[in-house]
Amino acid sequence: MVARYASYAKAAGGGPLKVDSYFGYDDQAVQKEYQRRTNQPQTGIVSAADLVKLGLTPLFFTVEGHLSDMFVGPCAFVASTLEREGRAVWRPTGYDNVRLPFNNQSGVDELVNRLDTKLFDDGTPFPEGTPWNLAIFSQGAMVGCEVMEKHVLPTNGRLHYRLKDFRKGIALGNPYRLINQCAPWVPDPPQPNTQGIMDWHFDFLKYPELAGKWQEHARTRDWYAENRLDEAGQNMTAIARIITQSSWTGGASSIVARIMDLFINPFDGLIDIVWAIVRTFQGIAHLEAHGTYDLNPVLDWFRS
Which CATH code of 3.50.50.60, 3.40.1190.20, 3.40.50.2000, 3.40.50.1820 fits the domain covering 48-228+293-303? Predict the structure, then answer.
């Protein structure tokens, strides 16, 4: 603030305002002058909105999962907790998370529009240069990863200008989880050589801009985030593609390819496909398929 408003950010004697950890009468006088110039009540108190305008408080965007309330869930818990602590301004994302097959595009469109907003309806500013966080869960993790991959990270992406201000992101129960990637604090991580259930995975490791800024949070036996690389895993992916994308063809993990494989290995393949159908439909029907998460380490990571 001293640098941005140097013309009046001065001490009582007219010299520069001292930069320290003490908020004294000189600082209060400068804050009142700032409030006068910005048509605010002259209380002398630095508000959370002031910190956002100065680019000091990150906005925290969240996208919850299938059939979830955007105000309730692991991402909402993390963001709302940090907001109560004055460490973030929470921006939940609503989208069509009811439809089957998944309507991920509705979430992508909504999150892109929110990230491209410069001023929200409630008056919260989001100018270029404002830091931002992202927490995404389950179907919402698919939405968030697609936005990062297609709109934020590419140099020609609509939101590439936001990349330099990206602070941290975490995906929980991610169907796009990259093989063998999991946050170090998870006590029961997925088994080695497993990945998200879908046939595309968010390879955040190839982007130096995300070094130290991205975490995958998944537990073992998470049907969406822990999928093996064997025949059974390919069958799980095939069924998941039908349920989430209505995709029947394309690649080794398509249901057509898996059925054709029955002619080569009919007994083993039939068991795998039937089991995949049962497990995947159970997973879609019950949000408990992800298990529960200890979110305290997640909070500590965002606080750091």
Answer: 3.40.50.1820
